[in-house]
């Protein structure tokens, strides 16, 4: 008798980290499985550790090999950490994509704004709807989050039903869209949930996330109390917050000026899809300077300190249309993502130096998270009654806290996993049964590099210790034809005793060459390696750092 199909799960991104979400589900046997991918997101480069890297994406080499068995890619919602890698990686997969209307429209607008973006078709599924994708029947269950049309996915298979929560929270009074569908989640619990693959982002925080309605009231109060110009910055994708800012501006008799391409794009898509029905029209940046100071509100991108976004340019006083002065106010209606603290702090300090009042969530309820706190996690477990819970969407601490909470709530099996783990969900006992290739891809300009890329490793080294360039011209007899050329980049001009580094390195190059036997001098590769080692050693002796050294040998 044939064995029943196994249902397996593997995270390829988003576990042990925040961002870069990619999960895959497989149905079949060990020889052949049909695969379903959920989300394909990015995380953002850190200039300190990854200079020049704009975006980090999951390694999809496993899915490339399984391309003929990949039934489709389903999107839970349209945040960058869930759909930001599609334009770059979809051409390697070319699978069908499924999303609800707002996510599909925002993705289409994102493609239109990218140069040379491939034509990527998306099948639109209604919110609350179901679609057959190979052997998977996927149901889109509305959940509250900080962007319209976020959905948990109930993935129905012959081997059981998995609930993949995506990003969610419980907000009984959202200012936009549907609340989390408790009724349907309870029904699923009665029908039987094999596994809950759940958001862990706020698993360390007690209680419940406040409602968007409370934030909207606070923003109205702050905008009405402001005397001069007001700027508000938030995540461009948070349409509920955009709507709240518009209501505050209307209550204070101010015009809303939208500043920043990402914000303009989301506002356009939100209007097209009906999420800003009844909201006044916004103005373009050109009119900002012509409006009285107490009649204008600038809605800006840049809440995470992005150097090219509107708020950074305003704080540096180099925005062509938007300026702020003493007595004006800036409301940060956002929380700083870990890793962005320095950049955000720099913007706040620059604004304060200009005499601008800065209002943040440290002092006012101007932001709430879109993720569930501990009481909400307990509710989800109670409603869905999963046989197995796997924490995802979080760093190690978040995953472990979610796991402990699940065990205390009586979930029969809880598994903490890592990116690349292959987990059998059912039938039978769940557990880690293997590993699939996983890792990171770096977007470096227009090129995708893997994490072992020489360019990325060398640039990190150069950022730390500069680089030495040496050019040597040798005769065929193994003699110096001319003085060596030395160029030092990112290396101090002088050592502790005031001696020029150029002279120190030049002397080291000459003495190294003169000290080599003739045969070694006539071997360009051997000569270059000897000079490279000598230069790094002498710089280390005088500075305490060993920079990369590039040596070019020319025979004349």
Automatic annotation (TrEMBL):
Residue intervals of the Metallo-beta-lactamase domain: 21-219
One Pfam family recorded for the sequence: Lactamase_B
Enzyme class: hydrolase
Protein keywords: Cytoplasm, Exonuclease, Hydrolase, Metal-binding, Nuclease, RNA-binding, Zinc
Gene3D superfamilies in the cross-refs: 3.10.20.580, Metallo-hydrolase/oxidoreductase, Ribonuclease Z/Hydroxyacylglutathione hydrolase-like
Residues in the signal sequence: none
Name assigned to this protein: Ribonuclease J
Annotated organism of origin: Bradyrhizobium japonicum
């Amino acid at each position: 008798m044939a064995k029943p199909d196994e249902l397996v799960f593997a995270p390829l991104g988003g576990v042990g980290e925040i961002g870069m979400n990619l999960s895959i589900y497989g149905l079949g046997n060990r020889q052949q499985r049909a695969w379903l991918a959920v989300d394909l997101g990015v995380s953002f480069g850190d200039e300190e550790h990854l200079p020049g890297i704009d975006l980090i994406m999951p390694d999809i080499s496993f899915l490339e090999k399984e391309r003929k068995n990949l039934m489709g890619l389903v999107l839970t919602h349209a945040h960058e950490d869930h759909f930001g890698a599609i334009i770059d990686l979809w051409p390697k997969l070319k699978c069908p994509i499924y999303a609800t209307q707002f996510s599909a429209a925002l993705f289409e607008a994102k493609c239109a704004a990218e140069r040379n973006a491939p034509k990527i078709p998306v099948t639109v599924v209604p919110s609350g709807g179901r679609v057959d994708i190979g052997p998977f029947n996927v149901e889109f269950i509305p959940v509250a989050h900080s962007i319209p049309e976020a959905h948990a996915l109930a993935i129905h298979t012959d081997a059981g039903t998995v609930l993949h929560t995506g990003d969610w929270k419980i907000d009984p009074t959202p200012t936009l869209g549907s609340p989390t569908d408790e009724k349907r989640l309870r029904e699923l619990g009665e029908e039987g949930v094999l596994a809950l693959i759940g958001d862990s982002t706020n698993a360390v925080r007690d209680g419940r996330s406040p409602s968007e309605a409370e934030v909207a009231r606070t923003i109205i109060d702050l905008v009405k109390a402001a005397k001069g110009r007001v700027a508000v910055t938030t995540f461009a994708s948070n349409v509920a917050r955009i709507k709240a800012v518009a209501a505050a501006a209307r209550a204070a008799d101010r015009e809303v000026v939208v500043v920043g391409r990402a914000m303009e794009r989301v506002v356009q898509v939100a209007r097209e899809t009906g999420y800003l029905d009844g909201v006044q029209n916004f103005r373009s940046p050109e009119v900002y300077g012509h409006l009285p100071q107490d009649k204008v509100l600038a809605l800006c991108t840049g809440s995470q300190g992005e150097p090219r976004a509107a708020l950074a340019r305003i704080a540096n006083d180099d925005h062509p249309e938007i300026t702020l002065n003493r007595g004006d106010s800036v409301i940060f209606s956002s929380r700083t993502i870990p890793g962005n603290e320095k950049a955000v702090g720099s913007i706040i300090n620059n604004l304060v130096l200009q005499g601008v009042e800065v209002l943040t969530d440290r002092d006012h309820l101007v932001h709430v998270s879109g993720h569930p706190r501990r009481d909400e996690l307990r509710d989800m477990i109670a409603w869905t009654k999963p046989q197995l819970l796997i924490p995802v969407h979080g760093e190690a601490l978040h995953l472990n806290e979610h796991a402990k909470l699940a065990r205390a709530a009586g979930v029969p099996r809880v598994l903490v996993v890592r990116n690349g783990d292959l987990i059998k969900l059912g039938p039978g006992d769940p557990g880690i049964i293997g590993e699939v290739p996983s890792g990171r891809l770096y977007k470096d300009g227009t090129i995708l590099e893997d994490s072992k890329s020489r360019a990325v490793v060398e640039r990190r080294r150069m950022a730390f210790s500069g680089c030495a360039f040496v050019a040597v011209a040798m005769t065929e007899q193994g003699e110096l034809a001319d003085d060596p050329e030395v160029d030092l980049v990112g290396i101090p001009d002088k050592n502790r005793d005031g001696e020029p580094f150029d002279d120190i390195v030049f002397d080291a190059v000459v003495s190294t060459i003169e000290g080599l036997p003739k045969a070694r001098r006539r071997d360009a590769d051997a000569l270059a390696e000897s000079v490279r080692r000598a230069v790094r050693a002498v710089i280390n002796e005088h500075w305490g750092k060993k920079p990369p050294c590039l040596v070019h040998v020319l025979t004349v």
